[in-house]
Amino acid sequence: EPEVTQTPSHQVTQMGQEVILRCVPISNHLYFYWYRQILGQKVEFLVSFYNNEISEKSEIFDDQFSVERPDGSNFTLKIRSTKLEDSAMYFCASSEGTGLYTNQPQHFGDGTRLSIL
Amino acid sequence: RKEVEQDPGPFNVPEGATVAFNCTYSNSASQSFFWYRQDCRKEPKLLMSVYSSGNEDGRFTAQLNRASQYISLLIRDSKLSDSATYLCVVIAYGGSQGNLIFGKGTKLSVKP
Description:
The structure holds 2 protein chains of 2 kinds.
Chain A: E1 5-7, E2 10-13, E3 19-24, E4 31-37, E5 43-50, E6 53-57, E7 65-68, E8 75-79, E9 88-95, E10 107-108, E11 112-116
Parallel strand pairs in A: 2-11
Antiparallel strand pairs in A: 1-3, 3-8, 4-5, 4-9, 5-6, 7-8, 9-10, 9-11
Chain B: E1 4-6, E2 11-14, E3 19-25, E4 30-38, E5 44-50, E6 55-57, E7 60-65, E8 70-75, E9 84-92, E10 100-102, E11 106-111
Parallel strand pairs in B: 2-11
Antiparallel strand pairs in B: 1-3, 3-8, 4-5, 4-9, 6-7, 7-8, 9-10, 9-11
């Protein structure tokens, strides 16, 4: 079964450093997402992406965050100057459709655990 | 008011038990509904979509009540492998792309 893959599985970074999290969505999917989950809390939406543009972003996704699809397969999340509170599990997801009216689900990668020291 | 609220849990049940989870959502324009399960420190995995007429997948039955803005999940004949956190998830109308809104989840522990 095709799956979303994320690298690295664990990233440890000093506060203030830049970090790039990488994702390879399922190949025929067109819609991409990033979510995060702080330990012990719920999964929170960060950003959605379609046709090389951000479709929607949450208030968490401030100027320190950016996303890119640099080639036909990768989808990256960059945090420019990391803060302690950025420590979380970051999940990439992809879907074939938007899910708004079709119940097409989003499929999640197994996440990158980001630890800011 | 929280967008998606779930039973706080945890639910501790013996193998073979029937267990029900409830969920309410605040946005009446919500269009799509799902149950995901999440194992400890793992990614959310789709368990099932929830349709207006209710739907069943083996031991799992999901119900949706739009008037009450209420979703349920019933698990029959619980297995040890059902132990996980069950996440109620909705997609709300108004977004250009269906970003998921998660509940905090209800933890289920099935004991031998």
